[in-house]
Write a structure and sequence with these properties.
Layout: H1 2-21, H2 27-32, E1 56-61, E2 73-76, E3 82-88, E4 97-103, E5 108-115, E6 118-121, E7 124-132, E8 139-148, E9 154-166
Parallel strand pairs: 1-3, 2-9
Antiparallel strand pairs: 3-7, 4-5, 4-8, 6-7, 8-9
Length: about 170
């Protein structure tokens, strides 16, 4: 009798196991089985599309009075880049600054308003000005940093000069 019971278990047991373990085949059963979905990435808009990295070239400029007659040279390599000028301040407590960048001949290149002084070390402050290298041709440039005085007039805070050279 025990032998007959073991034979039944050996024959019926696998059938019961495979009946419950096999994947769903009917459309109703397939809908009930959750399937992993690929992650959906958000649509890329022009604002979120990957941007090409543009190198930043940084230069520190001292006011013309402090430069000791040394000419600041800005050498721009071939290709697109951003030029970042650090304009060191004599008086770092001035707020509401504007920078005007002109060629040596007086042609306006750019004007930036609402600039703020930032700390560059203990007791030292500077204003940072950035512009694309494509705006600068070879030659002399002057940056005038100014602010609106309490009486409404514009006061010159500092003048900075530099010469642009393009690397070949």
């Amino acid at each position: 009798m025990a032998l007959a019971a073991a034979a039944v278990v050996m024959l019926v047991g696998p059938l019961i196991y495979f009946q419950h373990a096999k994947p769903a085949n009917t459309p109703g059963q397939q809908a009930a089985v959750p399937r992993p979905q690929p992650a959906k990435s958000p649509a890329q808009t022009p604002d979120t599309a990957p941007q090409r990295a543009v190198p930043i070239l940084a230069f520190v400029l001292s006011p013309l009075e402090r430069s000791g007659g040394e000419e600041n040279r800005v050498v721009i390599p071939v290709g697109e880049s951003t030029i970042r000028l650090q304009l060191d301040l004599e008086d770092g407590q001035i707020e509401g600054l504007s920078a005007t960048i002109r060629t040596g001949d007086g042609v306006m290149v750019d004007q930036l308003n609402g600039l703020k002084a930032q700390s560059t070390g203990p007791g030292r402050r500077a204003v940072f000005v950035s512009l694309p290298s494509s705006r600068l041709r070879e030659g002399q440039y002057v940056v005038r940093l100014s602010h609106a005085a309490a009486d409404g007039t514009t006061e010159l805070v500092g003048g900075y000069g530099f010469r642009v050279e393009h690397a070949r």
